[in-house]
Task: structure prediction
Amino acid sequence: METKIIYKKPMLYFLIKLLFRDYNFNNGVIFSFGNKIYTNKELKIWKRGHEFIHCKQMKFSSIYAIIHFIKYLFLRKFRLKSELEAFQTEYLLLGKTEYALHELSLNLSGPLYGNLCSYHEARDLISQ
Ligand SMILES: [Zn+2]
Result:
Protein backbone atom coordinates (compact mmCIF):
# COMPACT_ATOMS: atom_id res chain seq x y z
CA MET A 1 0.00 0.00 0.00
CA GLU A 2 1.09 3.54 -0.77
CA THR A 3 1.26 6.41 1.67
CA LYS A 4 1.10 10.03 0.68
CA ILE A 5 3.14 12.75 2.35
CA ILE A 6 1.35 16.09 2.59
CA TYR A 7 3.22 19.25 3.53
CA LYS A 8 0.33 21.14 5.06
CA LYS A 9 -1.90 20.99 8.11
CA PRO A 10 -4.46 18.19 8.20
CA MET A 11 -8.15 18.90 7.84
CA LEU A 12 -9.84 19.66 11.17
CA TYR A 13 -6.50 20.77 12.58
CA PHE A 14 -8.18 22.66 15.43
CA LEU A 15 -10.05 19.52 16.47
CA ILE A 16 -6.91 17.39 16.40
CA LYS A 17 -5.13 19.99 18.52
CA LEU A 18 -8.00 19.95 20.96
CA LEU A 19 -7.82 16.17 21.33
CA PHE A 20 -4.01 15.91 21.36
CA ARG A 21 -2.83 18.93 23.30
CA ASP A 22 0.86 18.48 22.50
CA TYR A 23 0.26 18.14 18.77
CA ASN A 24 1.69 21.10 16.88
CA PHE A 25 2.19 20.99 13.12
CA ASN A 26 4.56 23.98 13.18
CA ASN A 27 6.90 22.26 15.66
CA GLY A 28 7.41 19.37 13.27
CA VAL A 29 5.09 16.87 14.97
CA ILE A 30 3.93 14.38 12.36
CA PHE A 31 0.31 13.27 12.06
CA SER A 32 -0.89 10.29 10.05
CA PHE A 33 -4.45 9.58 9.02
CA GLY A 34 -5.40 6.65 6.81
CA ASN A 35 -2.81 6.66 4.03
CA LYS A 36 -1.83 10.32 4.51
CA ILE A 37 1.15 11.62 6.48
CA TYR A 38 1.02 15.33 7.41
CA THR A 39 4.31 17.04 8.14
CA ASN A 40 5.91 20.46 7.80
CA LYS A 41 9.31 19.09 6.76
CA GLU A 42 11.06 16.35 4.78
CA LEU A 43 10.96 13.08 6.69
CA LYS A 44 13.99 10.95 7.43
CA ILE A 45 13.66 7.31 6.43
CA TRP A 46 13.14 6.15 10.05
CA LYS A 47 10.34 8.70 10.57
CA ARG A 48 8.69 7.51 7.38
CA GLY A 49 8.99 3.97 8.71
CA HIS A 50 7.35 4.99 11.98
CA GLU A 51 4.44 6.70 10.20
CA PHE A 52 4.10 3.88 7.68
CA ILE A 53 3.37 1.54 10.60
CA HIS A 54 0.59 3.86 11.79
CA CYS A 55 -0.89 3.97 8.27
CA LYS A 56 -0.73 0.18 8.17
CA GLN A 57 -2.48 0.02 11.57
CA MET A 58 -5.24 2.17 10.04
CA LYS A 59 -5.37 -0.19 7.05
CA PHE A 60 -4.53 2.87 4.88
CA SER A 61 -8.19 3.86 5.18
CA SER A 62 -9.90 6.99 6.56
CA ILE A 63 -12.70 4.91 8.04
CA TYR A 64 -10.30 2.70 9.98
CA ALA A 65 -8.36 5.84 10.92
CA ILE A 66 -11.38 7.22 12.78
CA ILE A 67 -11.78 3.96 14.70
CA HIS A 68 -8.04 3.91 15.35
CA PHE A 69 -8.06 7.42 16.82
CA ILE A 70 -11.05 6.82 19.06
CA LYS A 71 -9.24 3.81 20.54
CA TYR A 72 -5.94 5.70 20.58
CA LEU A 73 -7.54 8.53 22.58
CA PHE A 74 -9.31 6.45 25.19
CA LEU A 75 -7.32 3.23 25.58
CA ARG A 76 -3.82 3.76 26.91
CA LYS A 77 -2.91 0.13 26.25
CA PHE A 78 -3.95 0.48 22.63
CA ARG A 79 -1.97 3.72 22.31
CA LEU A 80 1.12 2.09 23.80
CA LYS A 81 0.77 -0.95 21.55
CA SER A 82 0.36 1.24 18.44
CA GLU A 83 3.30 3.45 19.29
CA LEU A 84 5.49 0.57 20.37
CA GLU A 85 5.20 -1.12 16.98
CA ALA A 86 6.12 2.18 15.30
CA PHE A 87 9.00 2.87 17.70
CA GLN A 88 10.42 -0.63 17.23
CA THR A 89 10.43 -0.08 13.49
CA GLU A 90 12.12 3.28 13.93
CA TYR A 91 14.75 1.70 16.20
CA LEU A 92 15.45 -0.97 13.59
CA LEU A 93 15.81 1.64 10.82
CA LEU A 94 18.18 3.64 13.04
CA GLY A 95 20.47 0.63 13.24
CA LYS A 96 19.63 -0.29 16.84
CA THR A 97 22.24 2.03 18.32
CA GLU A 98 22.39 2.92 22.02
CA TYR A 99 21.85 6.57 21.15
CA ALA A 100 18.71 5.72 19.18
CA LEU A 101 17.35 3.58 22.02
CA HIS A 102 17.94 6.42 24.47
CA GLU A 103 16.28 9.09 22.31
CA LEU A 104 13.33 6.88 21.36
CA SER A 105 12.76 5.84 24.98
CA LEU A 106 12.73 9.47 26.12
CA ASN A 107 10.21 10.24 23.40
CA LEU A 108 7.90 7.27 23.96
CA SER A 109 7.78 7.82 27.73
CA GLY A 110 7.33 11.59 27.35
CA PRO A 111 4.38 14.00 27.41
CA LEU A 112 3.63 13.88 23.66
CA TYR A 113 2.16 10.39 24.13
CA GLY A 114 0.69 11.09 27.56
CA ASN A 115 3.52 9.52 29.62
CA LEU A 116 2.49 6.00 28.64
CA CYS A 117 5.29 4.28 30.53
CA SER A 118 8.53 4.99 32.35
CA TYR A 119 11.78 5.61 30.53
CA HIS A 120 13.11 2.22 31.63
CA GLU A 121 9.96 0.42 30.55
CA ALA A 122 10.22 2.16 27.18
CA ARG A 123 13.83 0.95 26.83
CA ASP A 124 12.83 -2.64 27.62
CA LEU A 125 9.84 -2.57 25.29
CA ILE A 126 11.51 -0.91 22.30
CA SER A 127 14.54 -3.20 22.41
CA GLN A 128 12.49 -6.42 22.69
ZN1 LIG B 1 3.71 7.24 16.43
User: Anything to note?
Assistant: The CA atoms of residues 33 and 66 lie 8 Å apart.
